[in-house]
Amino acid sequence: MMDIESHTMVFLRDLLATRAVEDPELTAFLACWVYEELWHGEALGRFLRTAGVAVEPGERARAVRQSLGARGRARHIGMLLGGAAFRDFPAVHVTWGAVNELSTLTAYERIIAATANPVLADLLQRIVRDERRHYSFYRAEAQRRLEAAAAARRLTRVALDRTWAIVGTGVRPLDETDFVVLHLFGDEEGAAAAAGMDTKVHSLPGLDGLWLFQRARQRALSRTRRPSRGSGGMVFQR
Ligand SMILES: [Fe+2]
Ligand SMILES: [Fe+2]
């Protein structure tokens, strides 16, 4: 999660290559958003170092960004082309943002509920306050833009249905993303949390019945049940 928080600058670079850059209200938000996500990553790194985990923040973020290589550049070009081809691309982005902020804040809440570490709980409670603000902004923007145009609803639905995956997918190895999903959402309470997130997404215009989170949880479950390389073969239970 530290890696993904620290990766926000790259998400911002991709985003500003689209028509999103033409909207001053959105870019004002993005300027604050990238600042807060940067410090979430820094705070989690400091927590880990204090707990004895050897992470060097600058080097780690550099290694994560460099590891993307051609895939990262292809994603950037894809965003550039998508942004140029579709007038309603910003609607996809803000809805995508709402979905990811919702999962981030719910994931942190799941850790807060499970941890016996008071420092971690306090840190994550502070981070969750920011994530709630991010979610509210993206959600309100998504609601407004999806309500306004049928084409925006169609494009957003297709984009989420066919290409969305849990935030961090593709940035870190898939078995790490699966680990996070199943560690936090693998048990019964986690399944209920995933269903709750889906209900919130379904209440946005045109997005009923997508089941993004329950499908992602199911995919992670089926991958980890299959014997595979490394930690990908483990089943996580709490
Ligand atoms: Fe964050
Ligand atoms: Fe956030």
Q: Can I get a quick summary?
A:
Helix content is 76%, strand content 0%. It contains ten helices and no strands. One fe (ii) ion binds next to helix 3 and helix 6.
Describe the structure.
The chain has 238 residues and is mainly alpha-helical. The chain has a single domain (2-233), classed as Orthogonal Bundle (Ribonucleotide Reductase, subunit A). It has ten helices and no strands. It has helices at residues 2-6, 8-16, 24-50, 57-85, 89-114, 118-148, 150-163, 174-185, 188-202, 212-225. Helix 2 runs antiparallel to helix 3 (24-50). Residues 228-238 have low confidence and may be disordered. The structure holds fe (ii) ion (FE2) (2 copies). Residues 37, 101, 104, 131, 134 line the site of one fe (ii) ion. One fe (ii) ion binds at residues 37, 101, 104, 131, 134.
Relevant terms:
238 residues; mainly alpha; Ribonucleotide Reductase, subunit A; globular; binds fe (ii) ion
- Helix-strand topology string: HHHHHHHHHH
The percentage of residues in β strands lies in: under 5%
Helicity range: over 70%
**Strand segment tally:** 0
Small-molecule binders here are: fe (ii) ion
Helical stretch count? Answer: 10
Unreliable sequence segments: 228-238
Distance between the termini: 19 Å
Secondary structure topology:
Elements: H1 2-6, H2 8-16, H3 24-50, H4 57-85, H5 89-114, H6 118-148, H7 150-163, H8 174-185, H9 188-202, H10 212-225
Helix pairs in contact: 2-3, 2-4, 3-6, 5-6, 5-7, 5-9, 6-7, 8-10, 9-10
The protein binds fe (ii) ion (2 copies).
One fe (ii) ion (FE2) binds at residues 5, 37, 40, 104, 127, 131.
